[in-house]
Design brief:
The complex is a heterotrimer of chains A (142), B (165) and C (160). By secondary structure, chain A is of the alpha+beta class. Chain A contains 3 helices and 5 strands. Chain A has a 5-stranded antiparallel sheet with strand order 1-3-4-5-2. In chain A, strand 3 and strand 4 form a beta hairpin. Chain B has 165 residues and is of the alpha+beta class. Chain B has a domain of 99 residues: Hotdog Thioesterase (Thiol Ester Dehydrase, Chain A). The radius of gyration of chain B is 19 Å and the shape is elongated. The chains are: A alpha+beta (142), B alpha+beta (165), C mainly beta (160). At the B-C interface, helix 2 of B face helix 2 of C.
């Protein structure tokens, strides 16, 4: 991982994207990792019986993807202070989920280099499914 | 809110705001940190390898973002995650539910969350809001969960939004 | 018998090749998840205080659970979790089908949460029956701290 520094980033800049594509196996791994065994994520008949078209990706997994997007960008010396999103649209397995972020603010607070971002997941057609925000700190070059 | 729209917030609900629920013990261990990291697809070795985590100054393997430990499971309990999707105990006329989203807040200057930590989670309703949207009248319930580690330090907070309409 | 799949001398030479050791961790969350997975309600697998009152070090691993192998996406199989490591058999079987043919576990001690085990394994047998190949793997689990053997496991896999 290349370390990114506070001085080098600009408001309006997009951070490196993270592309995900969940197999149904990944949704089972997520059930094990999160402790959420709700059947709409791995049992198709059940998902359809609740009115869904098929299996859907759990919102919390998409939130965790955004966590990875930010973790990988801030590098070893950055700190993740806050992140989250709303689960607006549904994503399905075996379809690209693109995780993106844009810097919205950069300022100093109590001696720390604060950076705020808009983060979100989007479908291949560009529709945003999980809009959210994040607050991180970045190191200074000095 | 139009004049004609009836509020669904009851006295019982108002009284519940700020009241902390029972503590839930969450265990952060090497195996569950790795499992969460594996499920998300993380590649950073600090989420898998103790030596790599220690070399970066952490006490042990680091809990990945969004992972706050596994609640101690008791058979017959259902084993849900504390805080998320909570606040549905009240009887209100709206039958439909949406998870409005979850935010995690960390306090890295206080401490990190690592394998070997025992976290106590306590949830409370932070507030109710009513709005009128494209889906009609909605009740928004805001929930807050505070995570305190074995040293009594608050290491994280989770903010959940539940939308009923 | 109609032609069995040919087990070559090269394949037979894989028998007995010992793997390098791998660490398996028995954690409270792992023990509880396994117990929950089999539907056990016995508190000895869930409640640490209860297990200690029964004379155990901690909650007891249900039969069949010998811990979770230390996992990293670069070293462990993404589906089965087993480590890819030095030593061990090198077989290139041309089959797509895979079934679990059975597991036998022999215990020499009670395994509890908190235990850290070291596992080595080797191919013990390879047999063909028609176009199916049966592999039997033997694993030895030692307590990492004391070096004592705590369990042995024989696993059979069917390739077809």
């Amino acid at each position: 991982m290349v370390q990114v520094y506070f001085e080098d980033i600009n408001v309006g800049e997009e951070i490196p994207q993270l592309k995900k594509n969940c197999s149904t196996q990944q949704l089972v791994l997520w059930a094990a990792g999160s402790g959420d065994f709700y059947q709409i994520h791995y049992y198709k008949d059940f998902a359809q019986s609740t009115g869904l078209k098929g299996l859907i990706v759990h919102g919390a997994l998409k939130n965790a993807f955004l966590g990875q997007l930010l973790h990988d960008w801030i590098g070893e010396k950055g700190e993740l202070r806050r992140f989250g999103c709303s689960y607006r649209g549904m994503d399905e397995p075996n379809q690209d989920i693109l995780c993106r972020g844009v810097v919205t603010k950069k300022y100093q607070d109590g001696g720390k280099n604060m950076v705020e971002l808009d983060v979100w997941t989007e479908k291949p057609d560009g529709k945003k499914t999980s809009p959210g925000t994040a607050v991180v700190t970045l190191p200074s070059k000095a | 809110m139009t004049q004609a729209q009836q509020s669904v917030i009851t006295e019982e609900m108002r009284a519940a705001v700020g009241v902390e629920g029972p503590p839930v013990t969450m265990e952060v261990e090497k195996t569950n940190c790795r499992m969460f990291a594996r499920a998300v697809g993380h590649s950073d070795p600090i989420f898998y390898d103790e030596a790599a985590a220690k070399a970066r100054g952490y006490r042990s393997i680091v809990a990945p973002p969004g992972f706050l430990g596994t609640p101690i499971f008791r058979p017959g309990s259902g084993g849900g995650v504390p805080g998320e999707m909570g606040g549905r105990g009240f009887s209100i006329p709206y039958k439909r539910v949406l998870n409005g989203g979850t935010d995690y807040e960390y306090f890295p200057e206080v401490d990190s969350i690592c394998a070997g930590d025992t976290i106590t989670a306590r949830s409370k309703i932070a507030g109710f809001e009513e709005t009128e949207g494209s889906l009609g009248p909605m009740l928004i319930t805001k929930r807050e969960t505070t995570y305190t580690n074995q040293d009594g330090k608050v290491v994280a907070k989770m903010y959940g939004t539940l939308i009923q309409y | 018998m109609a032609d069995d799949f040919e087990i070559t001398d090269e394949m037979k030479a894989q028998i007995g090749q010992e793997t390098e050791p791998w660490t398996y961790e028995v954690t409270t969350t792992g023990v509880r998840m396994y117990a929950r997975g089999i539907g056990s309600t016995d508190p000895v697998h869930y409640d640490v205080d209860f297990a200690k009152k029964q004379g155990f070090r901690s909650i007891v691993a249900p039969y069949g659970f010998l811990g979770t192998p230390v996992f990293h996406p670069d070293t462990n199989d993404g589906t089965f979790g087993f480590p890819r490591r030095a030593g061990g058999p090198r077989l290139n079987l041309p089959f797509k089908g895979l079934l679990d043919g059975g597991t036998e576990t022999e215990y020499f001690d009670v395994i509890c949460a908190g235990d850290v085990l070291e596992e080595t394994s080797h191919l013990a047998d390879i047999k063909a029956r028609g176009n199916m190949v049966f592999l039997t793997n033997e694993s030895v689990y030692k307590d990492k701290a004391s070096g004592k053997v705590v369990a042995k496991q024989r696993l059979t896999s069917i390739h077809m």
